[in-house]
Every structure is written in structure tokens, then in C-alpha cells.
Give the backbone structure.
Amino acid sequence: MGLLHGLTPSRAIWYSDGNVILVAGNQAFRVHKGILSQYSPVFRDLFTIPQPQCELLIDGCAVVHLPDDPLHLEFLLSAMYDRSFFNGAGKSQQIAEVAAGILALAHKYNIESFYEEAVYRLAEDYPTTFDRFHSTEQYTLDPFEAAHHAGSIFLINVARRLRTPELLEMLPLAFYLCCLLDGDLLVHGVKRSNGEREKLSPDDLRRCIDGKEELMKANGAATTCLALSPGNLSEDCTTLDECKAVLLAIMLDAFESDILSACDALTNIGPWIEEKAKTLGMCDSCGDHLRNTHRDAQKVIWNDLRGIFNLHEHKHSSD
Ligand SMILES: [Zn+2]
């Protein structure tokens, strides 16, 4: 190991019987050519065709310098050597970081199964249809926490880099979630596992700043269904006076709870409306009407996200 000349052997990925040392940044990973070749045709070719630049041997291992992000390479190798690695990635932010890192290299080294698995894991947190989004528990008023979605920054950056259709499809929701992050996260970026920060590009940061205002307006429009107007109660209502009084109470409560003034226009407040309607004595018909009207208004916002963030050009480029 003394022969590594300023390189740091990876603590996680250093097999003493390995026969190749991959170097990215100042990180060195001692692994097996056979394992890498089994997963990746790009590595297979690299090891089959004699590489004059790999003449250097340390400890009997060929040394291969890669221009990759060391953290991404660590994620990729961890996933190769430990098939439960992905499942252990824990919280949404870590999943996004690990998945984005693996995606970047799985795409480059043509490891289809890892690419697909990473997309699959991301799609669980970033649904691409309104119905799936609306029925995902983490996007319901309680327990929704904007800060839990800081991993969106990783997703946006990898989607920008690879520009594959399945990742571009997740961009509108990722931008929406980024808009809900506080200024510190948005400007200084989300912390990576190695302590560095992952930031949005200046253009994407601008999209979020402009998007916040658009979402606030959209939320204002969507929540007009809580205003005290006759169309906001059900045509089948037989207790109109009582339901009007309840609607007024719900609207005042929404004002006080910042539901009308926030930019989280897509947070599912259906269960909140349902609970208020029930406890305050609104009839079932009006309660359902209220929830459905708000849900329909949110669907319009969802369909407009590409426009809000000016993402239309990506749709064309991926065709
Ligand atoms: Zn009613």
C-alpha cells in the first residue's frame, strides 16, 4: 500500500486478492477484473485489449486511471460486490444520491441491469403520473417534509447529464420538490456522503426561483375550491346552510395553517379536507365534492409543471 503514491486506498473496496486497482481522483479501489468484466462489456474490452497506459503495476495489479467521480465509483463497486447495497441505501435522499451515482456510471460502462434498478428505485420516490404521485403517502400533507426531498438535486443533475427519456420524465417533479427546499439547500446544495455539496447549475437554480412564484399562484388558483361560493358545495347537498358554515370554517383553518399561502401546490390535502369535513359536520356529498375539486385542480398544475419550469425543450430532445 506504500506504493500508492498519494492515493488513498478505499476503506470499503479493497480486496487483497484483487488483480486490478482502479483510481478515480485520489481514491484507489482494489478489485477483480473478472467481476468487472462480468458486469460491464466496457471493462471487459478494457481488460482484453492490451492497454499500454496500464503498464504500471502495484503489488502485481494493473493500475487503471478513470476520469470518474470517486464517490460514484465507490457506489458502483459497492453494488457489484454487495447485491443488498441498494436496499440498504435507507432514506430518500441517500437513495437519490446512490442511484444518481450508479446511473451515471452504469450508463457509461453499459451495465444495463444496474441502470434499470437505479431508475426503478428513483421512480418509487419520483412518480411520473399524477395518480401515482397523488396516492404516494410521503406527498400527503402529513407527513410531507420538503427537506426530505433534497435528493431531487442529485436526480436533476444526473438527468441533465445523461438526458435519457426515463430520467427526463422525472424532472418536472424533481424541480417541483426543489422549489420547496429552503434557500440554503437551494443555493449551497445538498450534502454528499463525502461532505462535499451537490449543487444545481445556475440555470436550474433560476428555474426554481422563478418556479416558486408560479407555484404560489397555482396554489392560490387550486385552493379557490375552498372559497365560500355555491359551486364549491355539492348539487346533491340537502343541508346547504350547515355545509356553508363548515366550508367557511375550513377556509379559515386553511388560511391559518398556511395551506393557501405556500408554494407546495401539489401536496395532497385530501385527507386533511376529509378529516375537517367529518369533524365539523359537513355532509358526505359536499366533503367528496370538495376533495375531488381540489384534486382536479392539482392535476391541472401537475400537467403544467413542464411549462412552469420551462422544460419543454427536453421533451423534444429525447424523442
Ligand atoms: Zn352538503
Remarks:
- The CA atoms of residues 21 and 30 lie 4 Å apart.
- The longest strand covers residues 8-14.
- The radius of gyration is 25 Å.
